[in-house]
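[Meeting: bench + compute handoff]

Bench side (C.D.) handed over the final construct sequence. Compute side (W.E.) agreed to return the predicted structure before the next meeting so the bench team could plan truncations. Sequence as handed over:
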Amino acid sequence: MLDSDSDASKLELRVEKVTKKHHEGRVWQAKANLSFPGQLIRAECIDESPQAALDVARDELRKSVIHFRERLRASRLRGSRKLKKDLHLSPQARFYRKGRIRQEGR
């Protein structure tokens, strides 16, 4: 059993019939919740069969995860670019590399 405050991710899937009256058409609903610390990604779809609804929900969830990963990556890159921009070295700074001196700016 996982604690509510643990660092593990959790995937919840739910497939259900939307209505009891109708037997044909788009009556199956699939919901997927992917939660991990600090984030919840959700996908839901209504389709004619439970398999089709799950497939569409899975594709939607995959898209959302890729979008989230790209946002994190962009944020990290933005931070490192800002750090590099803010980091100013003196023109007289010298770096030693493999026994020789390499001057900054050449």
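W.E. noted at the follow-up: The chain is about 35% helix and 30% strand. C.D. will use this when planning the next construct.
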